[in-house]
């Protein structure tokens, strides 16, 4: 995409290739970064919802940066009626004020990569898949 840093554009291309049937919304920033929303990501148990959107920010340092945090639908709820617990943080909005995209009520999924030496081994697509897998294991 024009105006995006090369690493950001490559990450978005990887997302589109992995999720060919999902609508992917991209909100570029003036500096070449992007807010990204992947629609209709399968969810299901342990959650009441069958699917969610997943949003995140790709910084200009992509892919040499940790993609963090992730955001999912704001009405996320568990089948067992238990409250969402850390690292799930309800009552958030995505994207933040720096974006021209329409804000959505969301739950923040705080799954930061603490080992900076492994960031180059966990590109945004892999991190997204890891977060989705983690959510389904809760």
Secondary-structure blueprint of this entry?
Blueprint: H1 6-18, E1 24-28, E2 34-42, E3 51-58, E4 70-73, E5 88-94, E6 104-109, H2 124-136
Antiparallel strand pairs: 1-2, 2-3, 3-4, 4-6, 5-6
Q: What does this entry look like structurally?
A:
By secondary structure, this protein is of the alpha+beta class. Helix content is 19%, strand content 28%. It has two helices and six strands, in the order H-E-E-E-E-E-E-H. It has helices spanning 6-18, 124-136, and strands at 24-28, 34-42, 51-58, 70-73, 88-94, 104-109. The chain has a six-stranded antiparallel sheet with strand order 1-2-3-4-6-5. Strand 2 and strand 3 form a beta hairpin. It is globular and about 45 Å long. The model has no long low-confidence stretch (mean pLDDT 89).
| Termini Cα gap | 36 Å
* Mean pLDDT level: 89
Q: How are the strands of the biggest sheet laid out side by side? A: 1-2-3-4-6-5
SS summary, helix count: 2
What's the gyration radius in Å? 14 Å
Low-confidence regions: none
Q: What proportion of the residues is helical, as a percent range?
A: 10-25%
- Order of helix and strand elements from N to C terminus: HEEEEEEH
Structural class: alpha+beta
Shape: globular
Indicate the proportion of strand residues: 25-35%
Largest sheet: 6 strands, antiparallel
Number of strands: 6
């Amino acid at each position: 995409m024009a105006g995006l840093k090369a690493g950001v554009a490559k990450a978005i291309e990887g997302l589109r290739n992995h999720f060919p049937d999902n609508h992917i919304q991209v909100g570029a920033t003036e500096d070449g970064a992007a807010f990204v929303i992947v629609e209709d990501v399968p969810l299901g148990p342990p959650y009441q919802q069958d699917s969610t959107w997943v949003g995140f920010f790709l910084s200009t340092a992509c892919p040499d940066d940790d993609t963090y945090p992730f955001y999912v639908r704001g009405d996320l709820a568990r089948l067992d009626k238990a409250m969402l617990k850390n690292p799930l943080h309800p009552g958030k909005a995505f994207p933040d004020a720096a974006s021209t995209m329409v804000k959505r009520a969301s739950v923040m999924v705080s799954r930061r990569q603490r080992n900076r030496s492994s960031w180059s081994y966990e590109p945004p697509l892999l991190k997204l898949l890891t977060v989705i897998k983690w959510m389904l294991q809760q």
